[in-house]
Design brief:
alpha/beta; four-stranded parallel beta sheet; three-stranded antiparallel beta sheet; 11 helices; ATP-binding; ATP-binding protein; ATP binding; MJ1010-like_2nd
């Protein structure tokens, strides 16, 4: 079974090593969509460090974060980790990172390292290494983009056309009920300390924004953005000020769901 050689993350590895080689002055947030390789990147980098290095790494995915205060507490629960620590955020935790990014108290005290899917060159190099036909390369690229876990899964099967169809059906099937339940239930979420009722039409409007593109800018975080982010449907990138699906396959599934409305 083929995997993805780690040298494809050389750029990010070099950046983290450069951070660790300097005297710690800032908190580094390593963030990105789910299954984009954040944990593997950090773990691999730490394992390759000389023995005299001591890295304090907090995985925010393992923390229960129901508020901004919970997020801050998790960062500083270890006194020794206050400076120079590596933090990893994914999914709903990026909402807390968005608050940190806009929080004046932490201004100029943090840096942010995005770990996303592979770029076009790395993606095509991986597909070439797995000896896919030109048609198969286009099929996989169209449905996976540069998502590592998706690329590996499709590279390791024979009937890729059937597998892709099944993956897309499954993805749409997971998203559809999470959205359609809003038509029959008065679902509420906690937003800015208050319970806010979600409106089906407003959620659809957010998702419909991906009909012609893979991402778009947001002006502020709203309940309609918070809900699909917490459901791991969308990803918030606070540094670039955009929202986007968690993966390219996720994007295609969202378009299928919106088309059925």
């Amino acid at each position: 079974m083929r995997g993805i050689e780690f040298h494809n993350r050389e750029k990010e590895t070099i950046e983290i090593r450069a951070i660790l080689d300097r005297r710690p002055t800032l908190i580094t947030f390593v963030y990105g969509p789910i299954n984009s390789g954040k944990t593997e990147l950090i773990t691999h980098t730490i394992e390759e460090l000389p023995d005299e290095y001591v890295v304090f790494y907090i995985n925010l995915r393992t923390k229960s974060l129901s508020s901004y205060d919970d997020f801050i507490e998790s960062l500083f629960e270890m006194e020794i980790a206050a400076d120079g620590a590596l933090k990893k955020g994914v999914g709903k935790e990026t909402l807390a990172i968005e608050e940190v990014y806009s929080e004046a108290m932490l201004e100029d005290r943090c840096r942010y390292l995005l770990v996303d899917g592979f770029d076009e060159e790395t993606t095509m190099a991986f597909l070439e290494a797995n000896v896919l036909s030109e048609g198969e390369k286009e099929l996989v690229r169209h449905h996976c983009g540069g998502k590592p876990i998706c690329l590996v899964e499709l590279a390791n099967v024979g009937e890729r056309g059937q597998k892709v169809k099944g993956m897309l059906t499954l993805e749409a099937g997971e998203i559809r009920p999470r959205i359609k339940v809003l038509k029959i239930a008065n679902k509420k979420i906690l937003f800015e300390g208050e319970e806010v009722e979600l409106k089906y039409e407003n959620i659809i409007k957010i998702l419909d924004g991906f009909s012609d593109g893979g991402s778009y800018a947001y002006e502020m975080i709203t309940p309609e953005i918070v809900y699909p982010v917490k459901e791991n449907i969308l990803f918030v990138d606070p540094v670039r000020g955009i929202i986007k699906p968690q993966s390219w396959l996720n994007l295609l599934a969202i378009r299928e769901v919106v088309k059925d409305v």
